[in-house]
């Protein structure tokens, strides 16, 4: 493979949990390779999937992060099964979970991540030399992977990707790995759904095997987000340590393989998985264990056991808001109809006989329990992710920061997140 990535767990402090880690880890001393992945390709636009069954980005760094999420779900399942002592996660007083003290995570990439961290280091000689032109306008700009192409390009200005446009042959853009890692340094590597159950998880270090330039990599991954302010807690800029190994990298003229492989430690199906990158699925066209739907199903299986009262209340409010909007839309008049009564939820509808505003429709129950079945029948995948308000606000701040300072940020069509699961 042209690029390999690994997510490594290190335990830096002795704790009562230490003997269990040592017994599981072939490395000893509590250290463990959590996941390994390969890949350098993205999905073809024609195979974009609105059911959540396909991986959009099969670059090694992105796949290994999704494999890490799969691993964390397994750690939460241990708590569901009342085996929390075997998990690397501990429950906090607020009902959420956190990685145990002394455990850190480290990302290894066999070569510098595509985008701003790599484009100015085309060979080892250039990578080892200081940046001779740090003030050039093209330094630090966001870049995107292009469909059916190699490398990255500057993000086109004001680009908005639409579902029908992509299916009608518009080229699909996917943000570069350098840009995605910089986002992880704000939001964590656990993603929006897991942040509903746990505190964010940040990388402690990133190790690059070849084409390591301290100047370029620091700028791409850390410097661009170091000054970002106004991020709601518990999210904040985290700047991982950056290291490079002394490996030689030669120009490889062989065609990049169209497959991505992943392996995950200790989840029962650790024999590995191979994904066909253009389709984002396995060669049998079965969905990957790392696709949105697979991870969402695991999230839902934990809901009735791990969701906090605050999370139940947020879900109840989201469902009530959605149903109110739907009810109001049903009352919209067709052309030619006459309005004889005020619309529900309008100011007039909420006034009593004396013209005072009624609070009846403004309040929600102080307590609510939303079952897994109700949640997945009422809300889509994207709407459940919106329950992570601090995460979404932090993401919005990050994207605005990039669009204001580094050229832009391109996202997939919202249609991709509009699916439900049974």
Task: Walk me through the structure.
The chain has helices at residues 18-24, 60-80, 124-128, 163-167, 177-187, 191-195, 214-226, 292-306, 309-330, 372-378, 381-385, 389-405; strands at residues 4-11, 32-38, 89-91, 97-99, 103-109, 143-146, 152-154, 173-175, 203-208, 241-244, 259-264, 273-276. The chain is of the alpha+beta class. The protein has a seven-stranded mixed sheet. Strands 7-6-8 form a three-stranded antiparallel sheet. A two-stranded antiparallel sheet has the order 3-4. α5 (177-187) crosses α7 (214-226). The radius of gyration is 24 Å and the shape is globular.
Structure described in brief:
With 422 residues, the chain is an alpha+beta fold. The chain is 32% helix and 14% strand.
Write the layout of secondary structure elements.
Blueprint lengths: L3 E8 L6 H7 L7 E7 L21 H21 L8 E3 L5 E3 L3 E7 L14 H5 L14 E4 L5 E3 L8 H5 L5 E3 L1 H11 L3 H5 L7 E6 L5 H13 L14 E4 L14 E6 L8 E4 L15 H15 L2 H22 L41 H7 L2 H5 L3 H17 L17
Parallel strand pairs: 5-9, 9-10
Antiparallel strand pairs: 1-2, 1-5, 2-11, 3-4, 6-7, 6-8, 11-12
């Amino acid at each position: 493979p042209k690029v390999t990535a690994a997510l490594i767990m290190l335990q830096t402090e002795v704790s009562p949990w230490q003997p269990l880690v040592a017994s599981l880890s072939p490395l000893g001393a509590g250290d463990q390779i959590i996941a390994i992945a390969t890949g350098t390709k993205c999905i073809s636009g024609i195979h974009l999937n609105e059911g959540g069954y396909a991986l959009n980005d099969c670059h090694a760094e992105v796949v290994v992060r999704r494999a890490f999420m799969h691993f964390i779900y397994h750690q939460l399942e241990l708590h569901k099964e009342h085996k929390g002592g075997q998990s690397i996660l501990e429950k906090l007083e607020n009902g959420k979970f956190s990685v145990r003290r002394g455990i850190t995570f480290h990302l290894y990439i066999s070569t510098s991540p595509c985008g701003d961290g790599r484009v100015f280091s085309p060979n080892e000689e250039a990578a080892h030399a200081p940046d001779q032109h740090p003030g050039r306008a093209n330094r630090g700009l966001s870049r995107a992977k292009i469909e059916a192409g190699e490398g990255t390009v500057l993000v086109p200005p004001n680009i908005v990707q639409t579902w029908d446009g992509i299916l009608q042959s518009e080229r699909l853009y996917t943000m570069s790995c350098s840009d995605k890692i910089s986002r992880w340094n704000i939001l964590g590597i656990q993603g929006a759904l897991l942040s509903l159950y746990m505190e964010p998880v940040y990388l402690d270090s990133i190790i690059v095997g070849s084409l390591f330039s301290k100047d370029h990599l620091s700028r791409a991954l850390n410097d661009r987000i170091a000054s970002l302010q106004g991020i709601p807690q518990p999210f904040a800029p985290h700047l991982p340590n950056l290291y490079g190994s002394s490996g030689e990298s030669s120009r490889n003229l062989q065609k990049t393989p169209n497959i991505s492989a992943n392996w995950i430690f200790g989840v029962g199906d650790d024999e590995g998985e191979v994904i066909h990158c253009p389709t984002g699925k396995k060669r049998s066209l079965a969905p990957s264990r790392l696709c949105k739907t697979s991870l969402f199903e695991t999230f839902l299986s934990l809901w009735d056991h791990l969701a906090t009262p605050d999370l139940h209340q947020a879900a109840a409010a989201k469902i009530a808001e959605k149903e109110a909007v739907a009810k109001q839309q049903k009352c919209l008049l067709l052309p030619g109809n006459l309005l004889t009564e005020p619309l529900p939820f309008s100011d007039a509808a909420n006034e009593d006989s004396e013209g005072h505003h009624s609070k009846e429709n403004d309040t929600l129950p102080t307590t609510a329990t939303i079952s897994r079945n109700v949640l997945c029948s009422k809300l889509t995948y994207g709407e459940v992710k919106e329950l992570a308000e601090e995460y979404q606000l932090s993401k919005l701040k990050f994207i605005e920061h990039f669009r204001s300072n580094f050229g832009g940020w391109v996202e997939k069509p919202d249609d991709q997140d509009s699916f439900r699961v049974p």
